Amino acid sequence: MSFRDWKIVRVLAGIAMRIWAASGAALLSAFLIYVVYGGFFAFILLLFAVSGILYHAQDNLLYHPELPANSRIFIPVPSMHGLPYETLHLKTRDAISLHAFWIRHPGDKGRYVPTIVYFHGNAGNMGHRLQNASGFYHTLQCNVLMVEYRGYGLSTGTPSEKGFFADARSVLDHLFSRHDLDHGQIIIFGRSLGGAVSIDLAADAVYGSKIMGVIVENTFTSIPD
Fold first, then answer.
1. DSSP labels for the chain?
2. In 125, 155, 165, 222, which residue has its Cα 20 to 30 A from 86's Cα atom?
């Protein structure tokens, strides 16, 4: 078995242990209520416990910020691809810190070219997508803002759908607070999971009006996809 396979097994085992721990507490509570009040109340409690466990476990099953190995520790930087950059730590409204790379064309050029906001796919971190950022920068002559969702890379917090949508709005707020880019040429790019984040942002009545365009790549149409 390869190191990558062992890493996947460890992640799945960790999820299973958390679910088992929660299940054990719920089963103990159900047993005690059964002893005191009878089987009906224990059965109702068990139903609530199981539904709660499944609800809270879904994020662990859907999102994989720890794959591949060391994705929460080692983040490749743009200079490895010959890109100028500034490291940012953006604050969200719920006090999460988002790790980001601001890759901007130098001088006045950066004020007039389009800016692409890059929302990456599931698993890994933004450093694993720097080859794409290099293409946007060199071939398309765009500034690029790359950001890691909450719970990914060096960003704080825990991954969640609601949290990702909040992260996207905070990223756009940050861009509009800057004075070194053209606010009328902001393009949102989302790959896979990032496509869902991009579409939600564009569909917002307030934030959608601030975006020049949206590009989605390899994005699912539903969770089963």
1. --HHHHHHHHHHHHHHHHHHHHHHHHHHHHHHHHHHH-HHHHHHHHHHHHHHHHHHHHHHHH--TTTTTTTTT----GGGGT---EEEEEEPTTSPEEEEEEE--STTHHHHS-EEEEE--SSS-GGGGHHHHHHHHHTS--EEEEEPPTTSTT--S---HHHHHHHHHHHHHHHHH-SSS-TT-EEEEEETHHHHHHHHHHHSTTTGGG-SEEEEES--SSTT-
2. 165
